[in-house]
């Protein structure tokens, strides 16, 4: 099978300065396997200039602890997620004099800057999407487990001169029309593919939570991602953030055939494509 580690992506406007979106626990392995992310000069140089976070899930923040090598970069997240990081002193291994923490401005297209204040050429528009507070922050005694709107965001990524954008939504609990209307024909989409069915974890005997309880939209079913994105004209549609219980990971499965027939691709490690 093609390797599919946890869902980080790397984007660049110039092929030299790289913005990593979500810091996966697998980030060391991902960097080793990706030549453009290797040091170009010096003992500890790195093409990494910036990290963007879409939420505070362990899948997306644990890799920050592997980026503590005194390398300067900028860390962007919502005010809410930055407060979560600030409240957990383990993240102080990222030297604040070297790693600037900046709040994203929701619903605004903004330049992504490096630690020296230089423009990387990448443009991002963050926006709130339906989701859930990170599992490790859940409060069972509070409605919605303590979730607030800024717990989960989607990102529209492009460059200063691009005609189209890449939308990255690795965790999404529902799909209102307001989200779909953000995408224009020719845009590309990386969307939450955690489970194929809502009860997948339960029926497979590996868990007791539904996809919706975990803050995810299943691929299949009348209310699933495939059905809800049907009819939206896009350049490419790819599923990412796929749980190891999901049968679409099997190349010869009927579930894989189902999503492919609907025009979807399955993201994998080392996949590259351009958004113009």
Report what the structure shows.
This protein is α/β, with parallel strands linked by helices and 276 residues long. It folds into two domains: 1-124, Metallo-beta-lactamase, Chain A (4-Layer Sandwich), CATH 3.60.15; 163-276, Metallo-beta-lactamase, Chain A. Helices cover 14% and strands 22% of the residues. It contains seven helices and twelve strands. The chain has a seven-stranded mixed sheet. A five-stranded mixed sheet has the order 1-2-3-4-5. It is globular and about 50 Å long. The mean pLDDT is 94.
Describe how the helices and strands are arranged.
Layout: E1 9-11, E2 18-21, H1 27-32, E3 48-52, H2 58-61, E4 73-77, H3 79-87, E5 99-103, E6 110-113, E7 119-128, E8 153-159, E9 166-169, H4 177-180, E10 188-192, H5 200-203, H6 225-229, E11 236-240, H7 254-261, E12 264-266
Parallel strand pairs: 2-3, 3-4, 4-5, 9-10, 10-11, 11-12
Antiparallel strand pairs: 1-2, 6-7, 7-8, 8-9
């Amino acid at each position: 099978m093609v390797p599919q580690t946890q869902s980080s992506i790397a984007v660049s406007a110039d092929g030299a300065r790289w913005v990593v979106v979500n810091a996966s626990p697998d980030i060391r392995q991902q960097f080793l396997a990706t030549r453009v992310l290797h040091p170009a000069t010096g003992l500890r140089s790195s093409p990494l200039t910036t990290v963007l976070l879409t939420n505070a899930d362990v899948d997306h923040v644990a890799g920050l602890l592997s980026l503590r090598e005194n390398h300067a970069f900028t860390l962007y997240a919502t005010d809410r997620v930055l407060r979560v990081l600030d409240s957990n002193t383990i993240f102080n291994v990222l030297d604040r004099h070297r790693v600037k923490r900046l709040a994203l401005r929701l619903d605004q297209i903004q330049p992504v800057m490096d630690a020296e204040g230089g423009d990387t050429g990448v443009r991002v528009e963050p926006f709130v999407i339906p989701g859930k507070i990170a599992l490790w922050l859940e409060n069972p005694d509070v409605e919605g487990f303590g979730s607030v709107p800024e717990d989960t965001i989607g990102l529209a990524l492009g460059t200063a001169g691009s005609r189209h954008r890449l939308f990255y939504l690795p965790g999404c609990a529902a799909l209102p029309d307001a989200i779909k209307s953000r995408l224009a024909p020719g845009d590309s989409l990386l969307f939450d593919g955690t489970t194929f069915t809502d009860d997948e974890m339960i029926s497979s005997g590996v868990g007791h939570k539904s996809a919706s309880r975990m803050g995810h939209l299943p691929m299949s079913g009348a209310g699933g991602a495939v059905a809800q994105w049907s009819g939206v004209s896009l350049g490419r549609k790819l599923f990412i953030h796929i749980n190891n219980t999901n049968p679409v990971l099997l190349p010869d499965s009927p579930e894989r055939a189902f999503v492919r027939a609907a025009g979807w691709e399955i993201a994998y490690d080392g996949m590259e494509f351009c958004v113009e």
